Amino acid sequence: MPLSGGCHCGAVRYEIDGATVAQAICHCSDCRRNAGAPFVAWGMLPEAAVRVTQGAGQLTTYRSSEHAVRQFCKVCGAGLFYRNAVNLPGLIDVQTATLDDPEALAPTVQVQAAEKLVWVDRLGEMPAFPRFPNQDD
Q: For residues 62 and 55, is the Cβ–Cβ distance under 8 A?
């Protein structure tokens, strides 16, 4: 069954129809800085398995390194896709948090762990609140 997703504002929508090659969390500084987050979860698929169904004209392409390009919505800035023709020929990474059901492609591996922020390993030890501290449910 195809999966669907899109950007934050809804201008760009996409479908995935096919099995992933990998489902990973990436800790590289390039992903972190691009997303403004401590890591990014990706689903890697053959390029033919991903189809933009709405708002292709709203996608902007950004060359984030010598071989890598990232695509994001030019309306809301949400990152969606990553390609690297040298290291990952014929493949596309989809940011899994942009899926309508992000649980559908749970990460199974971590990559670029050499660049992982030290405090990420302590996430499970930190207090966790259902919403905000001091807020009744």
A: no
Residues 6+ apart with CB under 8 A from 83: 47, 68, 69, 71, 91, 92, 93
Q: Whole-number mean pLDDT of the chain?
A: 94
Q: What is the pLDDT of residues 77-123, one digit of tens each?
A: 999 999 999 999 999 999 999 999 999 999 999 999 999 999 999 99
Cα distances (Å, whole numbers) of residue 108 to 86, 96, 114, 126, 127 = 23, 12, 17, 22, 24
Q: What is the pLDDT of residues 72-83, one digit of tens each?
A: 999 999 999 999
25, 41 Cβ separation under 8 angstroms? yes
Sign of CA dihedral 105, 107, 108, 114: positive
> What's the pTM?
0.90
Question: What are the structural domains, with CATH classification, of the chain?
Answer: 3-21+40-104 (2.170.150.70)
CB 38 within 8 A of CB 123: no
CA angle 115, 118, 65 (to 5 degrees): 20
